[in-house]
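Ticket #4471: structure output looks truncated?

Reporter: J.K.
Steps to reproduce: submitted the chain below (205 residues) through the standard prediction queue, then opened the result file.
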Amino acid sequence: MKKVFFALAAVLMLSLTSQAQVKFGAKAGLNLSRVTEAVETMTPGFHAGIYAQVKLHPMFSIQPEVLYSMQGGMEKDVNEILNQTISSKTTLTSHNVIVPIMLQFSPIKMITIEAGPQFGFNLGMSSHSVVTTQGLVNTETESDYTFESDDYNMFDFGLAAGLKLNVASNVNIYARYNFGLTNVFEYEDDETMNQNLMLGVGFTF
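Returned output as attached by the reporter:
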């Protein structure tokens, strides 16, 4: 099914680019991401990549992108046990290639509203934990864990929507929010999904 979709998408893009104006660009910026249900606190990361802007009409365009995106989240917990305060912080990090395909609408030259599907591919996932004990005895321990590929879903489908400000003819700043619709982990009854706020700058050539 995935192969059929990408083949149809490729045919569609070829047919569009043969009749429309196409410009290419690069973009990069900050991520603030979390994994719902499992990790509540957003954690910073970054994204960078390239895009093609296919102008279909003065107000409408399609923009497929290929980006590297570092995502994840952070979970904190505090417990009181026998006059000891035990605090834990676990940071989850995933390395992804994401392919958004955005339908863009520009009601005026300076503003572009965009929305569309996003296809993601998880290249690897790890976690870093810090456990701190305070009270009669003060300790701090750190540990790292690398997830096996069977632990997480390597394919991630979601929806994205955002706003872009065209501050110059070839420069834009943008904010976009990605809503994952595929479970992150392969565990039974898992309901964790990626959410990611992207803030960045784009340059069109």
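Triage note (M.O.): checked the attachment and the full token line is present. Residues 132 and 140 are 4 Å apart (CA to CA).
Status: closed, working as intended.
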